[in-house]
C-alpha cells in the first residue's frame, strides 16, 4: 500500500512536471555527475556513458536487459516499434525525461476514429519500477543513436550498492 501511494505521488509529480516542460527531448546527454554507477546530465536527468571502445555503463546494460524483459513485446526488440506500439527511438527525440517516465508510470490512452493506442500503467509493476532509470537510460542511448540494437558487448562493473538498492526496491 505504501509503495502504491508513493508511486501515485511520483506519477502525479512526473505528469505535472511534464506539462510545464518543453517537449524538445531530454537535451544534451553528456554525463556530468555520477552516483553509485548512475550517470546524470547537466539537468540532473539519468543518462548513459559509452566509451570509445563501446563499453557502456551498468545502468545502460541493465536497461537493455530489462527493456527486453518488459517492453520489447510491444515496442519491438530494438525499440523501433511494432504494429502494437510506436517506436521509442523516435518518441524519445521529442519527449522530456519526465514525460517518458510519467507515461511508463501512469500509462497512456490515445483514441481516434482510426485507432486505439493504449499503454498500460506500470506504476505497480516492480519489475519495471525498480528499473525505471536503467530502462530510460537504455532508451535514451538508442534514441540518440549512441547505442545500436545489439546487446552491449562490454559494460562497467556492477556498482557496489546495486544489490542493496534493488533488494530495497523489491522490499
Automatic annotation (TrEMBL):
Record's keyword terms, sorted: Heme, Iron, Metal-binding, Signal
Listed InterPro entries: C-typ_cyt_methanol_metab-rel, Cyt_c-like_dom, Cyt_c-like_dom_sf
Pfam families, alphabetized: Cytochrome_CBB3
Domain of life: Bacteria
Signal peptide extent: 1-23
SUPFAM superfamilies per record: Cytochrome c (SSF46626)
Domain Cytochrome c: 63-124
Molecular function terms, GO-annotated: electron transfer activity; heme binding; metal ion binding
Alphabetical list of NCBIfam families matching this protein: 4cys_cytochr
Protein name from the UniProt record: Cytochrome c domain-containing protein
Amino acid at each position: 500500500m505504501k509503495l502504491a501511494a508513493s508511486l501515485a505521488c511520483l506519477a502525479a509529480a512526473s505528469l505535472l512536471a511534464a506539462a510545464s516542460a518543453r517537449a524538445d527531448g531530454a537535451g544534451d546527454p553528456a554525463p556530468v555527475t555520477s552516483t553509485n554507477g548512475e550517470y546524470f546530465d547537466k539537468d540532473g536527468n539519468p543518462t548513459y556513458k559509452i566509451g570509445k571502445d563501446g563499453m557502456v555503463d551498468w545502468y545502460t546494460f541493465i536497461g537493455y536487459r530489462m527493456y527486453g524483459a518488459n517492453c520489447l513485446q510491444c515496442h519491438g526488440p530494438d525499440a523501433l516499434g511494432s504494429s502494437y506500439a510506436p517506436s521509442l527511438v523516435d518518441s524519445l527525440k521529442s519527449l522530456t525525461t519526465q514525460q517518458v517516465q510519467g507515461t511508463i508510470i501512469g500509462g497512456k490512452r490515445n483514441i481516434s476514429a482510426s485507432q486505439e493506442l493504449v499503454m498500460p500503467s506500470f506504476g505497480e509493476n516492480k519489475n519495471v519500477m525498480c528499473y525505471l532509470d536503467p530502462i530510460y537510460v537504455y532508451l535514451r542511448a538508442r534514441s540518440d543513436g549512441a547505442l545500436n540494437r545489439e546487446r552491449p558487448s562490454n559494460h562497467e562493473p556492477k556498482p557496489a550498492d546495486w544489490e542493496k538498492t534493488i533488494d530495497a526496491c523489491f522490499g
